[in-house]
Design a protein that fits this description.
Strand 8 and strand 9 form a beta hairpin. The strands form two sheets. Strands 3, 4, 5, 6, 7, 8 and 9 form a seven-stranded mixed β-sheet that branches. The protein has a two-stranded antiparallel ribbon with strand order 1-2. It is mainly beta. The chain is globular. The chain contains one helix and nine strands; from the N terminus they run H-E-E-E-E-E-E-E-E-E.
């Protein structure tokens, strides 16, 4: 019985190691004006501020062309400048002319088609919502 338990435990470790093998969890992002490879990790909680107005941005369509759209502007609560968010925050419904403080989490999700991990933001809590 003891040998069976040890074999099951070892199999668990081996299989859990294999599940992440070959997974590309790095992305190239522009950080302070320079392209850098960064690792995508899960973050259980962090606070961001959402600007009261969206900004014009360019997003890549499914066919690879760039299209003009409107994106949320966010910054971490200690930052001065806003950054464009190319995507949505799951569970969050934006209303214009309100400044939000949100508690969000980031999960690393693998795109099965490309085998590339991408960050997905999910709302934990709306901390505050103030009219501008």
């Amino acid at each position: 019985m003891k040998k069976l338990a040890i074999a099951a435990l070892m199999t668990t470790f081996v299989l859990s190691g294999c599940s992440t093998m070959g997974m590309n969890d790095e992305r190239t992002m522009v950080v302070e004006g320079e392209a850098m490879d960064v690792k995508v990790v899960s973050i259980p909680s962090f606070k961001i501020e959402i600007a009261p107005l969206k900004a014009v941005c360019e997003l890549q369509a499914s066919n690879g062309t760039m299209v003009e759209s409107e994106c949320l502007q966010y910054r971490q609560t200690y930052q001065k400048n806003y950054t464009l968010l190319n995507g949505n925050i799951q569970g969050f419904t934006y209303e214009p002319n309100y400044r939000y403080i949100l508690d969000v989490r980031q999960e690393a999700v693998m795109n099965e088609a490309t085998n590339v991990v991408k960050p997905v933001w999910i709302l934990n809590e709306v901390v505050s919502k103030k009219a501008e």
